[in-house]
Each structure stands twice: as C-alpha cells, then as structure tokens.
Amino acid sequence: MALKQGVVDGEEQSIENIISMKFYEVQKYLILTRHWVNSSFQIINDDVWKSLSENHKQILIDAMNEGMEVNDKLRIDSEKNNLEFLKKKGMVIIDIDIEPFIERCKDIPLKSLGEEYKSLLEQIELAGK
C-alpha cells in the first residue's frame, strides 16, 4: 500500500517475494544488485560426523555436492522464469554492473572479521562466481 500511495519510493525484496506479494502491480523498476544469495547449509552433529567411516563421510559429501549443483540449476532457472514473468507484467528490469561495488567493498569483511577469516572469504567469493 505504501508503494501504491507513494509513501515510499522503493523496496528491497527477493524476486520471489515481489511475485508472491504482487509488488509488480505497483512497482515499475527492478534493479538486479545481486547483494543477496539464497544459500542453504548442510549441518551434522559433530559426534555423528566423527562416528562415520571415511567411506560414509565421502558418500555424504558427494551427495551434498550433487544436491548443491541441482539446487543451483533450479534456482538459476527459476530466477530466469521469474524475471520473464515480471517483464510480462510490465516491470523494467535493470541489470547493473556490480564489479565496481565488489571492488569498493572487497576489504570490508576482512577489516571487520580479521585475517583468520581470509581463506573462508576467498572460498565464498569463488563460490559466487
């Protein structure tokens, strides 16, 4: 309602939320900033993990990696379809060059988290490419 009445100029949501909440009815522009990645984590109790044989650990790791590949493909396909849906509803999709943002912000996590997280941050950065 705030968008419709002009009380606010914009909002930040996932593409899925824009569709499910029908923001496309009152919102003309969508800027693809890619500042949010929907991730999932696989978690296992440490005692359970330690109790597994190396063979069983590898089976789980392989299954998780395969699942992540499938999930990534589904997510990418879904986003493509959702963007097409929004275009058909009249939204203007603006795909910006995010490299200047990445360059400008690349040292912020290290400054706030410390050097001990440098390897982890590099892994995250590589996973996003």
How are the strands ordered across the major sheet?
Answer: 1-2
Provide the low-confidence segments as ranges: none
Mean pLDDT reading = 86
Secondary-structure-derived class: mainly alpha
Radius of gyration: 20 Å
The overall number of domains is 2
Strand percentage lies at 5-15%
What's the total count of β strands? 2
Number of helices: 7
- Major beta sheet, specifics? 2 strands, parallel
How would you describe what is shown here?
The chain is mainly α and 129 residues long. It has two domains: 95 residues, no CATH class; 26 residues, no CATH class. It is 57% helix and 6% strand. It is built from seven helices and two strands, in the order H-H-E-H-H-E-H-H-H. A two-stranded parallel ribbon has the order 1-2. The two termini are 37 Å apart. The model has no long low-confidence stretch (mean pLDDT 86).
Key terms:
extended; mainly alpha; 2 domains; 129 residues; two-stranded parallel ribbon; 57% helix
Topology:
Blueprint: H1 2-5, H2 15-20, E1 29-32, H3 46-51, H4 54-88, E2 92-95, H5 99-105, H6 108-113, H7 118-127
Parallel strand pairs: 1-2
